[in-house]
C-alpha cells in the first residue's frame, strides 16, 4: 500500500449554524483530511499536535480508520487548538468567534521515520514554515506534494508561503484567496499567475459552486452536488483535499486525467461532510454510500454530444 | 425544418462595464434569443415591437440570420424600448440607470399565421400577460414551451406569472429569483417547489457558476466556461435560453437526455456572448468556433470513473 503523509491541525471546534450549535467537538484540517483519505486503499499518518485534554476516544477514532498517529504529539499539560465560528444564514460566510492556538503556537512537526518515504504529502492549512519543515524531513522526494493554505498566511507570512509554494506540485485554495494571491479577478488568469509561483496544478475551490483544476492550458471542473440541505460547511474543503490526495495516493498516477478523477472523488466525499456537524457524517460513512453518490456525480455532469467536424 | 417562435424585447441598450461604455446599441431578450437560436437548423420568428427609430440595419441583421420578423411590429412615431445599466466591478451585479418602456408599454403581441403551429415557443422575459397572450394564439399545442422571467414580475405581476407558469414546460430563472419565487434557499428545494407551480423542467441559471436542470428527482449541471475575461454579461441568460430552445427545436426531442445537451449548447453559446459588448460577438460568431468550444466543454466536464459495485 502506498503512503500518504498528512500534516494539519487536530483540534476542537465549536460551531454555530442556522440549524443549531455544538459544544467542543472533534475538528481540525488534519482530522478531516485523514478521515476522508481513509476511504481509499492506503497507509496514512497525521503529523500534528494536541494537548492532554484531547480525549482518548478521538485518538481511537483516528486509529480505527488505520491512521497512524505516531506523529501526533501530545503535549503534557498543554491544551488542544480550539476554533469557534458562527455561520451566516446562507452558510457561505462565517465569523470566527474564538481562536485559541494553545499547543499549536509552538508546534514543531516531527515526521515519523516510516513515513519519510511517503508517496504523497498533503500539507494542510498551517503556517508555511511548518509546511516547509515537513518537506525538509522527507528522505525521498514524494511523487506529489499538495498544499492547502488560506488568506491568513497571505496576510501574515507571505514570503514563507511563497517559499514553500516553490516546493509543491498542487495548491488547493479558494476563489477569493486565489484572487488575493494573484491580484487577478479572473480565475483563469489567477491560476496562470499562481502556476508561475511554483505549483504545476492549481485547484480553486468555490464551495457550493464546485472546484476548478488548472494545469497549463487545461482546465477541469467538478460541481458540488446540489443538496437539499447543507447543514455545516466546516471541514468541507479539507475533506475535498483528503479525497483528492487519498485517491492519488491509492492510484499512484499523477496524470491530468487521473487528477480529474481525484477532484471528483474529493467533491463526492465533501458532499457528505456538510450533511452533519463537524466530522459526524464522515465517521459513519459507508463505502457503499460513497460509490452510490459517485453515480450521482456521473448523472449530474456526463452528457453525450457528438461534435461534427 | 422545425419552427421556433420567440417572444421578447427588441431594444436599445446602453451599457457601462469596468472595461468601457457603449452608446445605444442593439439589445433585447428577443434579439439575443434569436441570434443564438440561429446557430441551429430551424425556422424562427420574433414577435416583438419597436418604434420607427429602430434602424433598418438592425432589421436586416435579424433577417440575414433567417429570423422571420413579420411579427415584429414597427410603431409609427413610436420609440423603441431603451435600457441602460452599469455593471459593478465584479460584473455579477448591475444598476439599472434608465428604463424607457416606450412602445413596449402598449405591446399587443400578434403571432404570424404561419407560426401558430410552431414546434417550440420561447417566451422571453416580458409581462406574463404578454406571454399568456402568445400561448392563447397558438392553433396547435407546441411540443415545448419555455418561459424566462425575472424578479420584477414576481414583485409586480405574481398572479399573472403563476397563471402562465401553469401552461409551460420549462422555466429558466436565476438562482436568486428561484429563491424568491419558492421561498426556499436550497436550490434543490426551490426547484421542487417550482415544479409544483407548473413547469416539469426547471432550469436555474447561476451566471458564471453555470446552470442546473431539474426534472423530478433528476438533476444535471452545466458549468459556465471559465474565461480569461468576461467583458459584458448583458444578454448571456437570453443567449443561453436561445441556444437551449434552438437545439430542442432542431432535434425534436424533449427527453431529459436531450435537454442535457440543450443546456450544454446554451452554455456554450452564452460563453461567446459575454466576450464583447451586446450582440457584437454573436453577430460575427462562426459555426466552426461554436463546435470547437463544444470540445472545450467536453474536456472541462467529462471524466472516466469506473465504479465498482
What pair of chains forms the biggest interface?
A-B, 40 and 40 residues
The low-confidence runs of chain A, each spanning 5 or more residues with pLDDT under 50, are none
What is the CATH fold-level name of chain A? UDP-N-acetylmuramoyl-L-alanine:D-glutamate ligase
**What does the largest sheet of chain A look like?**
10 strands, mixed
Query: Total number of β-strand segments of chain A?
Result: 15
Residues in helices of chain A, as a percent range: 25-40%
Taken in chain order, the helices and strands of chain A follow as EEEEHEHEEEEEHEHHEHHEEEHHHH
Tell me the name of the CATH homologous superfamily of chain A: Ribokinase
**Number of DSSP helical runs of chain A:** 11
Query: How many individual domains of chain A?
Result: 1
Would you tell me the structural class of the helices and strands of chain A? alpha/beta
The assembly state of the depicted protein chains is homodimer
Strand-residue proportion of chain A: 15-25%
Query: What general outline of chain A do the C-alpha atoms trace?
Result: globular
Report, as a whole number of angstroms, the end-to-end distance of chain A.
45 Å
Q: What would CATH call the architecture of chain A?
A: 3-Layer(aba) Sandwich
Organism (chains A, B): Flavobacterium magnum
GO molecular function (chains A, B): kinase activity
InterPro entries (chains A, B): Carboh/pur_kinase_PfkB_CS, PfkB_dom, Ribokinase-like
Pfam family, one (chains A, B): PfkB
Amino acid at each position: 500500500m502506498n503512503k500518504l503523509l498528512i500534516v494539519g491541525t487536530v483540534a476542537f471546534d465549536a460551531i454555530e449554524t442556522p440549524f443549531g450549535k455544538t459544544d467542543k467537538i472533534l475538528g481540525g484540517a488534519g482530522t478531516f483530511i485523514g478521515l476522508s483519505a481513509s476511504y481509499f486503499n492506503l497507509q496514512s499518518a497525521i503529523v500534528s499536535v494536541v494537548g492532554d485534554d484531547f480525549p482518548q476516544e478521538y485518538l481511537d477514532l483516528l486509529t480505527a480508520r488505520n491512521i497512524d498517529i505516531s506523529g501526533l504529539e501530545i503535549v503534557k499539560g498543554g491544551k488542544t487548538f480550539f476554533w469557534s465560528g458562527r455561520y451566516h444564514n446562507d452558510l457561505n460566510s462565517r465569523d470566527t468567534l474564538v481562536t485559541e492556538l494553545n499547543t499549536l503556537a509552538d508546534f514543531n512537526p516531527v515526521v515519523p521515520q516510516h513515513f519519510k518515504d511517503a508517496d504523497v504529502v498533503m500539507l494542510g492549512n498551517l503556517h508555511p514554515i511548518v509546511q516547509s519543515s515537513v518537506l525538509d524531513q522527507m528522505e525521498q522526494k514524494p511523487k506529489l506534494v499538495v498544499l492547502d493554505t488560506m488568506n491568513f498566511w497571505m496576510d501574515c507570512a507571505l514570503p514563507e508561503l511563497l517559499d514553500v509554494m516553490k516546493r509543491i506540485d498542487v495548491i488547493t485554495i479558494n476563489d477569493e484567496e486565489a484572487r488575493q494571491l494573484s491580484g487577478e479577478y479572473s480565475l483563469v488568469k489567477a491560476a496562470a499567475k499562481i502556476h508561475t509561483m511554483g505549483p504545476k496544478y492549481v485547484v480553486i475551490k468555490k464551495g457550493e459552486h464546485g472546484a476548478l483544476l488548472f494545469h497549463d492550458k487545461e482546465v477541469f471542473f467538478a460541481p458540488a452536488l446540489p443538496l437539499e440541505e447543507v447543514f455545516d460547511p466546516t471541514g468541507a474543503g479539507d475533506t475535498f483535499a483528503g479525497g483528492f490526495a487519498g485517491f492519488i495516493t491509492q492510484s499512484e498516477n499523477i496524470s491530468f486525467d487521473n487528477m480529474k478523477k481525484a477532484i471528483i472523488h474529493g467533491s463526492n466525499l465533501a458532499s457528505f461532510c456538510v450533511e452533519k456537524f463537524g466530522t459526524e457524517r464522515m465517521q459513519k460513512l459507508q463505502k457503499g454510500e460513497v460509490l452510490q453518490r459517485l453515480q450521482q456525480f456521473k448523472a449530474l455532469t456526463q452528457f453525450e454530444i457528438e461534435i461534427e467536424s
